[in-house]
Amino acid sequence: MITVQQILDTQKSNVDALTGLAGKAFEGIEGLIHLNLSVAKAALSEAAQTTQAALSVKDPQELIALQQSLLQPAGEKAAAYSRSAYEIAASTGAAVSGVVEAQFAEAQAKFMALVETAVKNAPAGSENAVALLKSQVAAANNAIETAQKAAKQAVEVAEANFQAVTKQAARSGQAASKAKRGA
Fold first, then answer.
1. Percentages of the chain per state (helix, strand, coil), in multiples of 5
2. What is the number of other CB atoms lying within 10 angstroms of the CB of residue 173?
3. Is pLDDT at 38 greater than 90 in this prediction?
């Protein structure tokens, strides 16, 4: 039988988990705000420098050289921003996932304890029903574990693909910049 204290403990645990999740979400948001403010400050400073450089240009060749010098860093900066934003999102997601997994494991353990209590108190002659219940719980646990493993693998593949695309974009930007300088 479930007691009032067990219900209160469960509620307290749920509130603690929710508070932890909210804290992790706010940490991620703070990281993105800090990143965006840093990028905005840098962009403002660079815009002032670029404007000064453009105003001091004396001939068309200098203007073309200035334009070319601005292209490569822009691509690299965009790739760096994407990488930083992805890292913030990934770390926040990992933290939230850890809290959710811990809560799920705790709930699963409590459910298994409840099943064990029910099995111990089962009336005589219900062995087949108890065996069926145990096998269904075991099958459900295996299915959940398989789904969790598949989700983790999908995240790892997505992360590897993101890293590869980011590296390729940076290389492409550098190659394009070098090609324009050579022309």
1. 90, 0, 10
2. 19
3. yes
